[in-house]
């Protein structure tokens, strides 16, 4: 499965918004690559938010787009999620990181967000991708996953 990983950029610098390498996305990418998935990644804190790059990434056809969000980056993460859904409504949009972990219901209530990953996401994201590919567990069995089911929000 083709998975795109995005590090949402800080909208406004502050003492609480420090820039650091997106190690969480690197760990996720390593696990997915090891399991034979195609992975692309963009760190918009390095390049700056560029909508043409988002468009090109979505046009490359990922079935899953994972976006990392801290509270400082959440507004941009949500805008990226909306852009992804506008360009490809079939792509599964997954938000992870500290903000979705602390406020999963609020993040999952957003129309452009299909799933949230809570806490350390390597196993959760891999199991989600396997399930979306028709090879894994039922969504209800994936620990650390939030999703929508019949209009209800579910948090495992």
Task: Describe this entry's structure for a reader.
With 156 residues, the chain is an alpha/beta fold. It is 38% helix and 22% strand. The protein has helices at residues 23-34, 44-47, 51-59, 74-87, 98-102, 104-108, 122-132, and strands at 2-7, 38-43, 64-68, 92-96, 115-117, 145-149, 152-155. Strands 2-1-3-4-5-6-7 form a seven-stranded mixed sheet, sandwiched between helices. Helix 1 (23-34) packs across helix 7 and helix 3 (51-59) crosses helix 4 (74-87). 37% of the residues are buried. The model has no long low-confidence stretch (mean pLDDT 92).
* Helix content estimate: 25-40%
Overall structural domain count: 1
User: Distance N terminus to C terminus?
Assistant: 24 Å
Q: Low-confidence parts lasting 5 or more residues at pLDDT below 50?
A: none
Strand neighbour order, sheet with most strands: 2-1-3-4-5-6-7
User: CATH topology, what is it called?
Assistant: Rossmann fold
Supply Rg.
14 Å
Please provide the count of β strands: 7
Number of helices: 7
Structural class category:
alpha/beta
How much β-strand is present in the residues?
15-25%
Mean pLDDT: 92
- CATH architecture designation: 3-Layer(aba) Sandwich
Largest sheet: 7 strands, mixed
Superfamily (CATH H level) name: Cobalamin-binding domain
CATH class annotation = Alpha Beta
The rough form would be described as globular
Please trace the helix and strand order, writing H or E for each element. EHEHHEHEHHEHEE
